[in-house]
Write a structure and sequence with these properties.
- The chain contains 7 helices and 24 strands.
- Strand 1 and strand 2 form a beta hairpin.
- Strands 4, 5, 6, 7, 8, 9, 10, 11, 12, 13, 14 and 15 form a 12-stranded antiparallel beta sheet that branches. It has a 10-stranded antiparallel beta sheet with strand order 1-2-24-18-21-20-19-22-17-3. The chain has a two-stranded antiparallel ribbon with strand order 16-23.
- It is an alpha+beta fold.
Length: about 475
């Protein structure tokens, strides 16, 4: 090849690259772009969507995950009033002292330890709560996992206290920003009759000679008699996170022995606990969203994701499967496929959007798919390691990591790459296989069952953006 030919080839390569880049820059137009010589194409496909209210979003606390209880209430201008209450077991922390039978019971106090979470108003306003005994026991953690959900409601017994507290959310923000080593708490007095019952059980156990007298010392017996407590919001404008594993989250039985003030302590750590998170949707944009796992289209055209309450956005990939011209493409090599959500509504401070979500596949009944049968396992294998056993779309690096839909606060956009999954979906379409086209946007940061963050965006701004190559047959002389 002479110098002139080499130069000409170089110019053609540069021209081809510029053409591809100009195609890539022009991403605001819907439709088909092509370079006939290289077969490079670009589609921006609007996706249909709807809302789902999912049943049974787990909120109970298990080991090796975020342990948080939620407490409070706040009005949401689009999704209605949110109420978060919690249910929790308590049990002795430490052994019983000698001579407890000579002690005099004084009072019982409950201390709540706040973690680094709040959602709602940033004003330092009073919040009112009420404390109840439970009439039904919770799971014994020695025998089973405590599986409770955002809609799990236990019957309440007698009210044993009310309390009003004020914790300035700005203090929590400052703690997080400056990594301040402190725990904010609030302490309340409970019904003395309730405390006396607990103290009497401790006195009997200190010198127990029968099984009946040992209730205070044995968890399985204790939780049958002292079933737990529930704290319900009464009035307020925010939801706080409560840490059941913090040492300062406790109940104390105060007593006097030999002229000295002392106490017995009961802990909430490593026991059954969970939050109920319910919303009053009357008069809101989702007033008709009451039935679980049924598609709902709000009149506003907005789509939402709301942690805790369990509102998800369902996205359908059918517009890709049925895209005009797809039938004429025998071999599509997808270079990039990106799910994009634009024009995300900006939230005020104190009410941040979920920053990360995953993409979970739905079955025909709009339930989150799980691998439960041999047929499910076979279906997963057909999608060539682009899904895990929870039918969650994996990222393009094939390391087993979930594809993360991440929020960009500067562009007010969510996006994630799902190239390999879309390629497999295209292959299944061509082969007449099972088409997994219904997915749900499921928030994971902060955790869906341990927060009440929400986000709003227009339905028309949910798109699948793909760049692909169609191999072109060439002939050489």
């Amino acid at each position: 090849m002479n110098l002139w030919v080499r130069k000409k080839a170089g110019y053609l390569a540069i021209a081809g690259a510029l053409l591809f880049l100009s195609c890539e820059e022009d991403i605001t137009l819907l439709g088909y772009k092509a370079d006939d010589r290289f077969g490079v194409h670009f589609w921006d496909i609007p996706l249909e969507s709807s809302l789902l209210l999912i049943d049974s979003l787990r909120t109970s606390n298990l080991s090796q995950e975020s342990n948080r209880l939620l407490l409070g209430t706040y009005p949401d201008d689009l999704l209605g009033k949110v109420n978060a209450a919690f249910y929790a077991q308590y049990y002795r922390n430490g052994s019983l002292p000698d001579s407890l039978s000579f002690a005099t019971f004084d009072s019982v106090t409950l201390t709540l330890a706040f973690d680094d979470y709040f959602y709602g108003s940033r004003d330092a306003t009073p919040q009112q709560v009420a404390v109840y005994e439970l009439e039904e026991e919770l799971s014994n953690v020695l025998d089973e996992l405590p599986l409770y959900y955002n809609n799990s409601v236990k019957p309440l017994g007698a009210q044993i206290g009310t309390h009003t507290f004020t914790l300035d959310p700005v203090l929590i923000e400052d703690k997080v920003t400056n990594k301040v080593d402190t725990t904010y708490t609030t302490e309340m007095n409970l019904d003395p009759a309730f405390g006396q019952r607990l103290f009497d059980a401790a006195v009997r156990a200190a010198s127990a000679t029968t099984v009946e007298d040992s209730v205070y010392l044995k968890l399985d017996q204790f939780i049958k008699e002292f079933k737990g407590i529930s704290i319900q919001p009464v009035d307020g404008d925010k939801v706080y996170g409560i840490s059941p594993t913090n040492d300062m989250m406790r109940m104390r039985l105060h007593y006097t022995l030999n002229g000295r003030a002392r106490y017995l302590e009961l802990s909430f750590s490593n026991l059954s606990s969970y939050s109920t998170i319910l919303s009053d949707k009357a008069g809101s944009d989702v007033e008709g969203l009451e039935n679980y796992n049924e598609e709902y289209l709000p009149a506003s055209g907005n789509r939402y994701v709301q942690n805790g309450v369990g509102i998800l956005t369902k996205v359908k990939l059918d517009n890709f499967i049925n895209y005009p011209g797809l039938d004429t493409i025998k071999n599509m090599i997808i270079n990039t496929a990106e799910l994009r959500i634009g024009n995300v509504a900006e939230q005020p401070q104190g009410s941040a959007v979920p920053t990360q979500a995953i993409l979970r596949l739905l079955d025909d009944g709009n339930h989150l798919r799980q691998a439960k049968t041999e047929a499910d396992t076979l279906l997963l294998s057909q999608y060539n390691r682009t899904l895990n056993t929870g039918f969650i779309i994996l990222d393009d690096l094939q390391r087993g990591d979930q594809a993360i839909l991440t929020y960009d606060d500067e562009e007010q956009t969510y996006r994630t790459a799902m190239t390999l999954f879309i390629q497999e979906l295209y292959k299944q379409r061509a082969a007449g296989g099972t088409l997994l086209t219904n997915l749900a946007i499921f928030p994971v940061t902060p955790p869906a069952g341990k927060s009440v963050n929400r986000v709003s965006f227009p339905a028309e701004d949910i798109t699948l953006r793909i760049y692909f190559t169609v191999p072109v047959d060439t002939q050489t002389e």
